[in-house]
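Quick one: co-fold with 2-OXO-4-methylpentanoic acid.
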Amino acid sequence: MKLKVELVPPESRKERPEDPLSLEFGSVFTDHMFAMFYADNEWKNPRIGPYSNLSLDPAALCLHYGQGIFEGLKSYRRGERVFLFRPRKNLERLNASAIRMVMPQIDIDFALEALIELLRVERDWIPELKGSSLYVRPTMIATEPKLGVRASHTYLYYVILSPVGPYFKEGFSPVKIMVSEKYVRAADGGVGQAKTIGNYAASLLGGKEAMERGYSQVMWLDSHERKYIEEAGTMNIFVLFDDELATPPLSGTILPGITRESAMQIAQDWGYSLNERPIAIDEVIDGIKSGKVKEIFGTGTAAIIAPIGELYFREKPHIVGDGTIGALSQRMFDELTGIQSGEREDTRGWVFEIE
Ligand code: COI
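Sure, here it is.
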């Protein structure tokens, strides 16, 4: 496939934000986007062109039955050098989500080439300021107009870019999370492990209620017993019990986070005893009370590492440790952001440099 590039004339380009750190996450978009279409069992017409509205039939299947998936990754700049963090992992996960949602596979090499080209075009949009990056949002949606419930025969894959600072308005400081027993995010056999749009829709009401009570996100419990922690709004969860770092296993209801996997690898390299195991919410609350729980943090592309300072469960707030950033959370944040931004040595081959 030959990639077509149609650039916005320099005089029509947008003004770039001066301070990406102060932007609300994902609220500003660059001048260009990548798009390609799927029909007759193949991807076609790959193009980098102006960022613009989509034209969709009102009966497009994504709008009615939620056949849509996406990814999130970040690009960093240090002087003239531009980096992506484990981009193939995201594209592989997109393909895994596509299988679950009966959507077509993309060619990872081609999608990566197109992304690299898009980032070359938008190089000046990649912020250099510490704590900022250019967030990359690959998206695939079903476009066929049809009201019968079945998988679409046509799709659109596109990539948009947004300069971002921290995901939470608090920045890198402890966030407050509310544990929900009322709602669940995903159930056994469902689509919890896929990065599909409906999972986020399912989380909104719980998220709204948490926010109304002053909490940033919800911690979800398993759908069967409401006993085990699963993940939080936009993050996987890690709990440090004394010297054991534990995180819930990928049981099918949890998003297989790339930051999660990276944090696990780093913790193991640092000599932590790392366990993927079911973690009962009672074990966490008891551990907070007894002091056995030293830290809790979330991991995610957008959130990176988010120290959790307070868990609200059954009408009671529980302060984790002394409510401040734990030593491991800080060390993990420094290590990950250092590697991602090219400041620290990348001994694991995770950083992908764009020439
Ligand atoms: C990410 O961390 O990249 C996510 O996809 C979470 C998000 C929905 C903001």
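If it helps, The mean pLDDT is 97.
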